[in-house]
Structure to design on (227 residues):
């Protein structure tokens, strides 16, 4: 059965800390892995990863994919209270159409 | 481009009533996905539609739920005879091409409360 597992489920840190969020997957016909940030609204897209070992970076956020070990990490450096959100990992599978499997998310709380 | 629109944003229904959720994809997008997010859970795929076609409905409960995406107008997710367990946030996402796109664009969601 295809699945995406995120860890930890929740995390509390203080401003300035660095955090690493994990996403492991077992999905046949893997095509890409996506990270989203969800606050009190719809998820917003962060990164899409398709190749192993190539780091994607956007400001204080970065992400990398390991297709051999079937996982991805999302790093946030120098965290700010505005980073508090649920971070969702999704894996796109390719059949004759594409299908998405979402993890349960990691709830990040950044305290001042 | 107004982005993906969903309405209503909040919907309250009594048990046994029908709920209709609407999703207007971004301009130029012909692929729509519906997801459900239960409290304290992640997004779960429900159904994937193209114009006038249901491509994959494997995530949709077999009874009481249906979806359509007509040639003209928004995509509709319909829940008949709602029960308390249907209370959730329902998100719609659209993409320009289902087979080779970069990311999905999500709507703001409809929060359904069944009393």
């Amino acid at each position: 059965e295809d699945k995406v597992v995120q860890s930890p489920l929740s995390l509390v840190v203080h401003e300035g800390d660095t955090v690493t969020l994990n996403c492991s997957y077992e999905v046949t016909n893997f095509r890409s892995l996506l990270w989203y940030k969800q606050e009190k609204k719809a998820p917003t897209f962060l990164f899409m990863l398709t190749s192993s070992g190539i780091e994607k970076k956007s400001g204080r956020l970065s992400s990398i994919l390991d297709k051999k070990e079937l996982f991805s990490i999302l790093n946030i450096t120098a965290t700010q209270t505005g980073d508090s959100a649920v971070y969702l990992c999704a894996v796109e599978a390719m059949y004759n159409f594409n299908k998405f499997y979402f993890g349960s998310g990691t709830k990040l709380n950044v305290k001042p | 481009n107004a982005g993906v629109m969903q309405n209503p944003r909040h919907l309250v229904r009594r048990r046994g009533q029908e709920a209709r959720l609407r999703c207007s994809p971004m301009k130029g997008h012909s692929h729509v996905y519906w997801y459900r997010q239960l409290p304290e859970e992640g997004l779960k795929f429900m159904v994937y539609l193209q114009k006038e076609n249901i491509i994959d409905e494997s995530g949709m409960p077999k009874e009481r739920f249906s979806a359509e995406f007509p040639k003209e107008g928004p995509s509709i997710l319909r829940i008949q005879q709602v029960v308390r367990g249907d209370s959730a946030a329902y998100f719609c996402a659209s993409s320009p091409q289902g087979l080779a796109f970069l990311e999905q664009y999500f709507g703001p969601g409809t929060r359904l409360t069944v009393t």
The longest strand of chain A covers residues 85-94. The two ends of chain A are 41 Å apart (CA to CA). Residues 47 and 86 of chain A are 15 Å apart (CA to CA). Chain A touches chain B at residues 6, 34, 41-45, 48, 88, 90, 97-105 (CB under 8 Å).
